[in-house]
């Protein structure tokens, strides 16, 4: 009896041991499978990141921040997921880096220094780069002389405009005035005004580019007396307020190191106006009723310009009858009067500013 009990106990004990052994094996296998699955998931996740794809919480895939930035740079509109990724990417940049590199928008909004603008203008050649342009068709022969450039009008036998630069050094010229008025050899004879046209006409041969601004070179001075640089002017005008303005321009050149001057007559813009206006001599040289002068100061700290419009009178009204400031106007107003576009080579922001207004206190 005792023996049988012992056998039962042994049998029972053996079954229990076998079952426990089987359960341990299955547990270890399940653990290994789980570990392998986790390893594969990690490998898959890392592979997805390398391929440029992020795994979202719901298991869906979205583009990486690098792809978002590339897509935005190409002009495409990012999706909501892309915006989130790009936002996270931006947050990862340090505050120090942001402070060191201001945004392009802030840089664009920063106003340009007027001094920097003036320095940039130093590379321009006034007689070439700042030449005026007509807004409508006009007879013109552009001639380059040593001290100035003239646009000559063969129909009216006067200049359309004359442009030149006057520097501080050139104001120190002291060649003696010659008064050797002559025809311009660059203009065909039949199109050129003649000395005889002015003789006994009652009008002076009025310089546009004055001899006193060109007496730093014998050639420049001789060419200043070409009739292509002349217009019929009343004597009291030529020797009066027009001379005062020429002298004032020299003061500005001495003060600011250099100025650019463009000047000329107001010419008729229709055949009816042309027929109405007075002419002199056999060559029918037009007598302008108004003259204008535009002065640009590019180097005196602030880039600025001013215009003047004056009537060509031939009466004795006195040299000091009216101050120069009474004739001052904006460059824009001279453009409207003449149909000429001044300083077209200037950067638009500078051109708009200097032509639309002037501060009389900064000039006189």
Written overview of the protein:
- The protein is of the alpha+beta class and 364 residues long.
- It has 2 domains: 2-97, no CATH class; 114-362, Extracellular Endonuclease, subunit A (Extracellular Endonuclease, Chain A), CATH 3.40.570.
- 41% of the residues lie in helices and 18% in strands.
- The strands form 5 sheets. Strands 4-5-6-9-12-13-14 form a 7-stranded antiparallel beta sheet, with helices on both faces. A two-stranded antiparallel sheet has the order 1-2.
- Strand 12 and strand 13 (304-311) form a beta hairpin.
- Helix 2 packs across helix 3 (80-91).
- It starts with a helix and ends in an 8-residue tail after the last helix.
- Residues 1-21 and 50-118 have low confidence and may be disordered.
**What is the N-to-C order of secondary-structure elements (H for helix, E for strand)?**
HEEHHHHHHEEEEHEHEHHEHEEEEEHEH
Q: Give me the secondary-structure category.
A: alpha+beta
Name the CATH architecture of the largest domain.
3-Layer(aba) Sandwich
Instruction: Determine the mean pLDDT.
Output: 76
Note the beta-strand portion: 15-25%
Number of helical segments with 4 or more residues: 14
Shape: elongated
* CATH class identity of the largest domain: Alpha Beta
Helix coverage percent: 40-55%
* Count of extended strands: 15
Please identify which CATH superfamily of the largest domain we are dealing with.
Extracellular Endonuclease, subunit A
What are the segments in which pLDDT stays under 50 over at least 5 consecutive residues? 1-21, 50-118
Strand ordering within the main sheet: 4-5-6-9-12-13-14
Q: Could you tell me how far the N terminus lies from the C terminus, measured between alpha carbons in angstroms?
A: 140 Å
Rg, rounded, reads 43 Å
């Amino acid at each position: 009896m005792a023996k049988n009990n012992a056998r039962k106990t042994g049998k029972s004990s053996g079954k229990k041991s076998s079952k426990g052994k089987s359960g341990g094996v299955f547990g270890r296998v399940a653990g290994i499978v789980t570990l392998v699955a986790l390893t594969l998931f990690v490998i898959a996740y890392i592979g997805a990141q390398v391929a440029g794809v992020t795994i979202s919480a719901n298991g869906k895939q979205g583009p990486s921040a690098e792809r978002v930035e590339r897509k935005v740079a190409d002009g495409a509109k990012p999706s909501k997921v892309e915006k989130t990724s790009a936002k996270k990417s931006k947050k990862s940049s340090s505050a120090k880096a942001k402070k060191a590199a201001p945004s392009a928008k802030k840089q664009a909004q920063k106003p340009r220094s007027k001094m920097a603008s003036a320095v940039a203008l130093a590379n321009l050649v006034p007689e070439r780069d700042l030449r005026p342009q007509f807004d409508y068709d006009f007879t013109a022969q552009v001639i380059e002389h040593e001290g100035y450039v003239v646009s000559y009008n063969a129909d009216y036998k006067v200049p359309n405009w004359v442009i030149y630069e006057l520097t501080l050094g050139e104001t120190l010229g002291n060649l003696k005035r010659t008064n050797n008025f002559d025809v311009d050899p660059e203009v065909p004879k039949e199109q050129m005004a003649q000395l005889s046209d002015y003789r006994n006409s009652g009008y002076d041969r009025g310089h546009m580019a004055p001899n006193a601004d060109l007496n730093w070179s014998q050639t420049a001075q001789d060419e200043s007396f070409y009739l292509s640089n002349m217009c019929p002017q009343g004597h009291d005008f030529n020797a009066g307020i027009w001379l005062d303005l020429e002298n004032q321009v020299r003061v500005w050149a001495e003060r600011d190191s250099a100025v650019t001057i463009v000047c000329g007559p107001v010419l008729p813009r229709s055949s009816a106006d042309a027929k109405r206006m007075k002419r002199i001599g056999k060559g029918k040289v037009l007598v302008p009723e108004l003259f204008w002068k535009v002065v640009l100061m590019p180097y005196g700290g602030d880039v600025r310009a001013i215009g003047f419009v004056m009537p060509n009178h031939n009466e004795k009204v006195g040299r000091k009858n009216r101050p120069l400031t009474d004739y001052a106007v904006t460059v824009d107003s001279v453009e409207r009067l003449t149909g000429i576009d001044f300083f077209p080579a200037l950067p638009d922001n500078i051109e708009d500013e200097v032509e639309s207004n002037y501060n009389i206190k900064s000039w006189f």
